């Protein structure tokens, strides 16, 4: 499927828009044309250009990271969970992993700032396109563009409320410094606003895969994820489980999405916007400055240009041990070879290449070719929600209500296990058990299937086992120190950055920091 790339379209700076480049599927603009919003937003073509700027704003921050920006998906979703361990040379990431955060931590600050920059660009998109009159844009295009932007706004707000919990809820464009002294709202208010945006978006957006643009299925899938998160800490609204069940079943019944038959192929460059990708954040590289970090942040020992990774983090031993020995996800997601000595195919398929000591095993899901010129500009799109995630969330919603059946498992979890099975006796089917046992097994299945995709910390918090999980990390090697002994209950959320408290007297620091 041909995908739509969103990169380098608009850069908001000093009230000007730089139209720098764009995908030929959408618009063709001359590079380096400076336009004010008023000059641009005179027709549907200009409105679409402005919308693509909102996609561009989300790209480097909700993802694993891009364009030199710290990505929420890696730092919140994986670093402080139980998929990887961080070495002593991990910089600010080390303190996230160790649970030694202060309000002055650089990553905590940069992720807050960049999420709010993205939010303001999206709010600008919504406000300004909604203000266009019928002589400037037809109603169908206007409604669709606003719905796409509301999906993007939901992504950003979900990241913010998951991470910092008590946040300012900004729902319109901030245009001057007089408007920055805003107060926080409760998490419930933010979640309810997200629900409203996603319901409106789902009622308008097309029922298709999308190739990188927001769709009905993407909005409904994110809505289901939001409902599930509301069922856990800090809201514990168990009534949201039924709402999640309903909306996720609608995605399953749409017929738009399906699993690819081969797990490894899901993460191949040619399948970045496949039928399994409900929504995937577009990246493009190398040498465009629009690539991401996947395949270099996570990657085997060896030189990056040979398909290796940075060595910023290493595999959690207990995570590796949790896999069936003939689970294809073990071989695809954990690198035990040296990329200087072996090709990606050899590292995946030949256990004799697994010569790296266990303390140096690495995460490995997006297999960079050998040789390559990626470094920090890899072309792999970032999966945001896959159909596999939809199936697992649906099973979770049923189990939370005490109504999960074996038939439900067979169309969800056991489909994933069948795909992961390398021999007939490997990766046994899940059998329905007690509600607690089912929850434990569903959470473990999410870790194996969705590792490094940015959801692990939210999952652990939602299931109520975050402290338990990080306390189970006890390993030597290049480890900055086990995080469990450092953890205190208030650290389940991040602090409000000190720089924000300094400029906004209406903000109150999260308890404990």
From TrEMBL:
<dbReference type="InterPro" id="IPR011990">
    <property type="entry name" value="TPR-like_helical_dom_sf"/>
</dbReference>
<protein>
    <submittedName>
        <fullName>Starch-binding associating with outer membrane</fullName>
    </submittedName>
</protein>
<keyword id="KW-0472">Membrane</keyword>
<feature type="domain" description="SusD-like N-terminal">
    <location>
        <begin position="97"/>
        <end position="228"/>
    </location>
</feature>
<feature type="domain" description="RagB/SusD">
    <location>
        <begin position="381"/>
        <end position="513"/>
    </location>
</feature>
<dbReference type="Pfam" id="PF07980">
    <property type="entry name" value="SusD_RagB"/>
</dbReference>
<dbReference type="InterPro" id="IPR012944">
    <property type="entry name" value="SusD_RagB_dom"/>
</dbReference>
<keyword id="KW-0732">Signal</keyword>
<comment type="similarity">
    <text>Belongs to the SusD family.</text>
</comment>
<dbReference type="InterPro" id="IPR033985">
    <property type="entry name" value="SusD-like_N"/>
</dbReference>
<dbReference type="Pfam" id="PF14322">
    <property type="entry name" value="SusD-like_3"/>
</dbReference>
<keyword id="KW-0998">Cell outer membrane</keyword>
């Amino acid at each position: 499927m041909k995908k739509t790339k969103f990169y380098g379209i608009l850069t908001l700076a000093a009230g000007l828009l730089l139209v720098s480049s764009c995908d030929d599927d959408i618009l063709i603009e001359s590079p380096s044309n400076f336009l004010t919003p008023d000059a641009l937003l005179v027709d549907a073509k200009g409105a679409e250009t402005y919308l693509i700027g909102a996609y561009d704003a989300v790209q480097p921050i909700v993802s694993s990271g891009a364009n030199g920006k710290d990505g929420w998906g890696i730092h919140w979703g994986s670093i402080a969970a139980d998929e990887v361990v961080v070495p002593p040379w991990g910089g600010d990431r080390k303190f996230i992993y160790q649970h030694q955060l202060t309000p002055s931590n650089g990553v905590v600050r940069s992720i807050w700032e960049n999420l709010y920059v993205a939010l303001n660009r999206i709010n600008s998109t919504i406000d300004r396109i909604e203000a266009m009159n019928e002589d400037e844009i037809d109603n169908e295009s206007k409604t669709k563009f606003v719905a796409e932007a509301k999906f993007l706004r939901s992504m950003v707000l979900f990241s913010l409320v998951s991470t910092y919990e008590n946040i300012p809820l900004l729902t319109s464009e901030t245009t001057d410094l007089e408007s920055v002294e805003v107060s926080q709202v409760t998490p419930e208010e933010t979640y309810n606003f997200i629900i409203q945006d996603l319901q409106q978006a789902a009622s308008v957006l097309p029922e298709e895969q999308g190739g990188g643009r927001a769709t009905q299925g993407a909005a409904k899938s994110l809505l289901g994820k939001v409902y599930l998160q509301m069922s856990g800490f800090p809201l514990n609204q168990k009534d949201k489980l039924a709402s999640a069940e309903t909306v996720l079943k609608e995605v399953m019944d749409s017929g738009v999405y399906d699993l690819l038959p081969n797990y490894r192929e899901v993460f191949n460059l040619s399948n970045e916007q496949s039928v399994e990708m409900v929504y995937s954040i577009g990246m493009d590289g190398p040498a465009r400055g629009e690539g991401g970090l996947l395949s270099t942040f996570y990657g085997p020992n060896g030189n990056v240009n040979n398909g290796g990774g940075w060595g910023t983090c290493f595999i959690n031993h207990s995570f590796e041990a949790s896999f069936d020995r003939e689970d294809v996800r073990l071989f695809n997601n954990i690198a035990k070879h040296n990329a200087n000595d072996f090709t990606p195919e050899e590292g995946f398929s030949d256990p004799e290449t697994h010569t790296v000591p266990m303390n140096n095993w690495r995460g490995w899901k997006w297999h960079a070719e050998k040789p390559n010129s990626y470094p920090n500009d890899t072309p792999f799109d970032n999966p945001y929600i896959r159909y596999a995630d939809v199936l697992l969330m649906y099973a979770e919603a049923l189990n939370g209500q005490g109504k999960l059946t074996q038939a439900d498992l067979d169309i969800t979890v056991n489909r994933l296990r069948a795909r992961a099975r390398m021999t007939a006796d490997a990766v046994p089917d899940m059998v329905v058990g007690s509600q607690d046992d089912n929850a434990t097994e569903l959470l473990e299945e999410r870790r194996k299937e969705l590792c490094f995709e940015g959801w692990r910390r939210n999952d652990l918090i939602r299931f109520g086992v975050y402290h338990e999980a990080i306390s189970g990390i006890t390993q030597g090697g290049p480890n900055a120190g086990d995080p469990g002994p450092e953890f205190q209950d208030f650290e389940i959320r991040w602090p409000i950055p000190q720089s924000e408290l300094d400029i906004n007297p209406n903000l109150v620091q999260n308890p404990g920091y």
